[in-house]
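$ fold --in a.seq
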Amino acid sequence: MSETALRLWLYFLASLRLLAVYLSLFDRQWFEKYYALAPEKVNDVFGRVFASWTSTTAMLCIFCASNITSRPIYIATLGSFVIAFFNMSMELLVFRTVVIKTAIMALVPAGVSILWMSVGWSSFGRSTSKSKHG
């Protein structure tokens, strides 16, 4: 498994998350489409909370990509993907606020990241030493 590929993946996801932050703050129609089965529940406060969470997870991706061998950052980033996967699964299956097409936009990146980071745990996430790139 390539350390460089995982770093690039995390930077890519961070950029997608930052785009989602922008859209959630400044394009309410996009955000209402995202939660297509419950657009009446989307409001400005919800958008700001979503933007805060998503900004935090983007920051984690950037920190992890920059410090791939930092155990605490690796665990926090992996945990953020687990939370995102669980949250979107709940929105799809329990709360029924999103359609499958929307859910896939979150579930696939989170699922791939969970698998990749879990497999890479022994290679990347086990050291407490400082990364050579960070």
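$ fold --in b.seq
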Amino acid sequence: VLDSDGVENSTTARVIVTKPVDDPPVADAGPNRVVTLPHNNITLNGNQSRDDHMIVKYEWSLSVDSKGKVPVMQGMQSPCLQLSAMPEGDYTFQLTVTDSSGQRSSAEVTVLVQPEANRPPVAIVGPDKELISPVESTTLNGEGSTDDQ
């Protein structure tokens, strides 16, 4: 710098250019779930996954721990996975999210499909009957009996 009197001075400044902070995403596949047959469909929700910029891809898959099980899976590329036709057993699903920088994160959720509860039947034979001699027999009607199966 030169002033009006001809005096000159200079200095050096150091400029550091850094990349903006871009944290990786955090996948959240939701809480573990339990389903009791005959109800065998459920929706898993991964929309609690988060990123400091933007999640651009959701990918659901059945874990290799669940081999041999083949549920019907819809919405495998969306935040919510719809599951149906699930036979009894344990299932582990993995959600992988990818952010706008290509960074990835995964989380797992377990679904337990339990057998249907089999409660004892309820026997109903109708109202009490009184036999007066010489009558030795009567007919009871069990059509009101019920069972949960």
